[in-house]
TrEMBL record:
Residues 443-462 are annotated as: Disordered. It comes from Streptomyces uncialis. InterPro entries: AmpC-like, Beta-lactam-related, Beta-lactam/transpept-like, DUF7586. Residues 24-337 form the Beta-lactamase-related domain. PANTHER family: D-ALANYL-D-ALANINE CARBOXYPEPTIDASE, D-ALANYL-D-ALANINE-CARBOXYPEPTIDASE/ENDOPEPTIDASE AMPH. Residues 356-439 form the DUF7586 domain. It holds the Pfam family Beta-lactamase. This is Beta-lactamase.
Length: 462
């Protein structure tokens, strides 16, 4: 039996509705819909509409634009996990003859391939995909704008190519593969390439008058993997839970964590704004919080899905207009409102059930040269290295079967920690990627690279 989600306080719910109402009113949106997820469940949803009695519900479809890219990235990671491709593979290995074959799968996922942002010819989001029936039509004669791997340059073309990779390796359409391998297992029954009632109409709002213009809703053809999907606040809420926790029927927790890890070299502007890009997800640092998710924008629709990892809070905001409402800002604010009004209590401290004495004797102070560090035994059985100075480098480490530990984050991510022991079994020093950590600063009894002056520590002569 599932425990029902804890209800938000009335004051919090009113604050969320007020923020959403402000988004709709000031953004002049025909309608907006939103949901907030906590602990894996929707704890609030709301909507506002310009039409009386026609407020959208959690099952009302909106087109979600580039959030589609995250779904496409999931399909690529599934292929990788099955051994059908490697992220380092050049595109040419799986889709030969494109003229962009030097780009790797990883670079396409992270928008680091140097490809153009848009397809040549008429605006692809407002014209039918039948105008671009072949890859050559969407790539054009000069698809590159930057050298591959040098800089993050957002590319819708890259995700069209990734969709083609999926089709070639699965022998089925991108849409069919997505439905079978992601949408159905995750019960995203209202997410699809084509809308079905109830769904929001696509509108543009005049910038200087309160009047509307219908936007065309096209099938994007080969460009579909970059922005075709329709979805709802309820479905995107479930998808966000999957992106946070994983689901072994689709992708493991380790693989979705890889998607959330920055993978592209950021431009100077992105660094200044705290933005980077993972494998199909945007990673943003806003007001002291790290958000992971994606935004979407196509003619007639705006969308945002953002998760604050530390708060375990997600906000989904959808609108049916081409421009106006700042849905990204609204999503950040919805998370902030809940996090500040009803902060999560810390998890109860609990001791380890079993203690490995060999690990326990590694804990305590260590020194990299003269710099102090502390090594802790974590509740999950791993080790955590913390710098005791502001400029130091630290990381959690996960135990490996061979008795070493693998760095998970920060400077030591992917590096191996080895505990080197003396003949009597006592720990002599730690080796982390050739860095030697000793029990005393520059311990002369340990193999410190470069050696230690035999006269030892001394004062400065005047």
């Amino acid at each position: 039996m599932t425990t029902p989600p804890e209800q938000l306080l009335p004051a919090t719910r009113r604050a969320l509705l007020h923020r959403l109402a402000t988004t709709q009113s000031e953004g002049r949106a025909p309608s907006v819909a939103a949901a907030v997820v906590r602990d894996g469940e929707i704890v609030w949803d709301g909507s506002r509409s310009a039409s009386d009695g026609q407020a959208p519900g959690t099952d009302t479809q909106y087109r979600i634009g580039s959030i589609t890219k995250t779904f496409t990235a999931v399909l690529i990671l599934r292929l990788r996990d099955e051994g059908l491709l490697d992220l380092g593979d050049p595109l040419e290995k799986h889709v030969p003859g494109t003229g962009a074959g030097e780009v790797t799968i990883a670079q396409l996922l992270a928008h680091a391939g140097g490809l153009a942002a848009e397809s040549p010819g008429p605006w692809w989001e407002r014209t039918p995909g039948s105008l671009r029936p072949h890859l050559a039509d969407i790539l054009g004669e000069e698809p590159f704008r930057h050298p591959s791997g040098r800089v993050h340059h957002y590319s819708n073309l890259g995700y069209a190519l990734l969709g083609t990779v999926v089709e070639r390796l699965r022998g089925a359409s991108w849409e069919d593969v997505l439905r079978r391998e992601v949408l159905e297992p995750l019960a995203l029954h209202r997410t699809a390439a084509q809308p079905s009632a109830p769904y929001a109409e696509a509108w543009a709002v005049h910038p200087w008058a309160d009047v509307l213009l219908p936007e065309p809703v096209e099938d994007y053809g080969l460009m579909a993997p970059a922005g075709q999907l329709w979805s709802t606040t309820a479905d995107l809420a479930r998808f966000a839970v999957f992106l946070s926790r994983g689901d072994d029927r689709v992708l493991s927790a380790e693989s979705v964590r890889e998607m959330r890890t920055p993978a592209a070299p950021s431009a100077t502007r992105d660094l200044a704004s705290g933005a980077s890009y993972g494998l199909g997800t945007q990673v943003l640092h806003i007001e002291g919080r790290t958000f992971v998710g994606h935004g979407g924008s196509v003619p007639g629709f705006l969308a945002a899905l953002l998760t604050s990892v530390d708060d375990d809070l997600t906000a989904v905001v959808l609108a049916n207009c081409t421009s106006g409402p700042a849905v990204f800002v609204a999503a950040v604010d919805l998370v902030r409102i809940v996090a500040e009004a009803e902060p999560r209590p810390p998890q109860p401290w609990r001791p380890l059930r079993e203690v490995d004495q060999g690990q326990l004797e590694l804990t305590g102070p260590w020194y990299w040269g003269p710099s102090p560090y502390a090594l802790r035994l974590a509740a999950e059985g791993g080790l955590v290295l913390d710098s005791l100075t502001a400029a130091g480098r630290g990381s959690p480490f996960l135990a490996q079967e061979d008795g070493t530990w693998l760095g998970l984050e920060g400077y030591f991510a992917g590096e191996v920690l080895r505990a080197v022991r003396r003949p009597d079994g006592s720990p002599s020093h730690l080796d982390i990627g050739s860095f030697v950590f000793t029990r005393e600063p520059y311990d002369a009894g340990a193999p410190v690279p470069g050696g230690v002056d035999p006269e030892g520590w001394r004062g400065l002569k005047q």
